[in-house]
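> run fold Protein GrpE
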Amino acid sequence: MEERQDKVPAAGGESPDAQNQARTPQEELAELRAAVVRYKEEAEHNWQQFLHAAADLENYKKQASRQREDAVQRARYAVLAAVLTVVDNLERALEHAGGDDEKIVAGIRMTHRHALEVLAKIGVTPMETLGQMFDPRYHEAVDVVAHQESGVQPGTIVGELQRGYFVNGEVLRHAKVRVAK
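> ok
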């Protein structure tokens, strides 16, 4: 095949070869140095863009990881809260159990104890509230009662309507309590 080379005359009517021959080596050197500077600036700009993109990606990974951990924690708390309703029902059954059927009461006690042991293995522990001072970080006051007992200071928890629980040191469920006036 035959290659076809069309020479397009440059501005002023000279061919590109004629223009290159007319330049001095100093002009060519200056032009090459300018090109090197341009390419270095472009490379630096591209490098900075790369660094920013890498930092953005790393930040995204950390944020996604935190969101995933938060979702797992919320799901865990929801499941534990559901299990606590079963424990509450077992406690109510024990409170209202009569002496008529000792085997049933013993079975409920055993199931209740086992449920608390399983919860303890995964970091869930009950709050101790009776006799403690009311703290809204841990307690929910559902009743304020005038208490005549000597030595009971106002703000002391005198009754527990629903037990509160911690999971790994954080409040899983606030205790619902009666507080002395």
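Helices lie at 16-22, 25-96, 102-121.
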